[in-house]
Amino acid sequence: QVQLVESGGGLVQAGGSLRLSCAASGGTFSRDIMGWFRQAPGKEREFVGAISRSGITYYSDSAKGRFTISRDNAKNTVYLQMIGLKPEDTAVYYCAAGPAAGSSRRLYDHWGQGTQVTVSS
What we know:
The protein is mostly beta strands. It is built from no helices and eleven strands. A hairpin with a 4-residue loop joins strand 7 and strand 8 (77-82).
């Protein structure tokens, strides 16, 4: 059973930075696509970005230029580095694992519980 545990969320001022981590266990991490999604109150869960097994990254338009996804296959961990945070980035951030890269939630089989990111203005 694959388990994903996010950490690193918190409260940050606008313009600040955070690095989220997602630790995976119980599966084939090095073979999975790892994605990051976020869900703001009252909104749909939306794609932030993803990283392939070999490190190829994909980003949403809102994440490009400010967010960077990386992975350490030896540590079974994926990271989301966020800079230049804005109040509209406030959301619960989720990591997910699946066999294929893409922005659709249906591509991902396993999800973490999420970590709250709050950006104050």
